[in-house]
């Protein structure tokens, strides 16, 4: 038998600190992913990201499993690339103007010359409202 707990506010044991459930829901990560952007692009692990597509050197498109509520969500991302003798940090950004409720654009480039480069490993998370 399943149970449902319906509350509007969660509070600590002393009732001094409380938070509305709606605030908790809005502030959670709605999607996260870690992908390999070299050779054959592939998701290493993810939640709510269905696939990553290679659009050329250092450019990718991610498809969401469940749509976001609008195009104004936030993606926080980092990554690294093969710098020859060592792995180096890459700049990783999104093309916010090209994001939609069902997909997002991801770019990676070398900090030394701002040239697009394929990313070896790229973790990221998305916050915002789901549809």
Write a brief structural summary.
The chain is mainly beta. It has one helix spanning 21-26, and strands at residues 9-11, 18-20, 29-36, 42-47, 49-54, 59-64, 74-77, 80-82, 87-89, 91-94, 103-109, 122-127.
Describe this structure in words.
The strands form 4 sheets. Strands 4-3-12-7 form a 4-stranded antiparallel β-sheet, with no helix packed on it. Strands 5-6-11-10 form a 4-stranded antiparallel β-sheet, with no helix packed on it. It has a two-stranded antiparallel sheet with strand order 1-2. It has 1 helix and 12 strands; from the N terminus they run E-E-H-E-E-E-E-E-E-E-E-E-E. It has one domain (29-127). The radius of gyration is 18 Å and the shape is elongated. With 131 residues, the chain is mainly beta.
**Computed Rg:** 18 Å
Principal-axes geometry comes out as elongated
Element-level helix/strand string: EEHEEEEEEEEEE
Helix proportion range: under 10%
- Biggest sheet strand order reads 4-3-12-7
> How far apart lie the N and C ends?
29 Å
Total E-strand runs: 12
Q: Count every helix, treating DSSP H or I runs of 4 or more residues as helices.
A: 1
Structural class: mainly beta
Beta content: over 45%
Multimeric organization: single chain
The structural domain count equals 1
Question: Which spans have pLDDT < 50 for at least 5 consecutive residues?
Answer: none
Most strands sheet: 4 strands, antiparallel
């Amino acid at each position: 038998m399943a149970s449902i707990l319906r509350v509007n506010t969660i509070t600590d044991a002393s009732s001094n600190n409380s938070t509305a459930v709606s605030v908790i829901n809005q502030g959670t990560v709605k999607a996260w992913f870690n992908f390999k952007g070299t050779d054959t692009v592939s998701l290493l692990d993810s939640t709510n990201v269905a696939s990553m597509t290679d659009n050329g050197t250092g450019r990718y498109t991610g498809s969401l499993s469940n749509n976001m509520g609008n195009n104004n969500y936030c993606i926080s991302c980092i990554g690294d690339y093969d710098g020859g003798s060592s792995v180096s940090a890459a700049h990783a950004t999104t093309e916010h103007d090209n994001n939609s409720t069902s997909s997002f654009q991801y770019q990676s480039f070398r900090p030394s010359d701002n040239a697009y480069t394929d990313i070896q490993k790229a973790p990221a998370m998305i916050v915002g409202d789901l549809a």
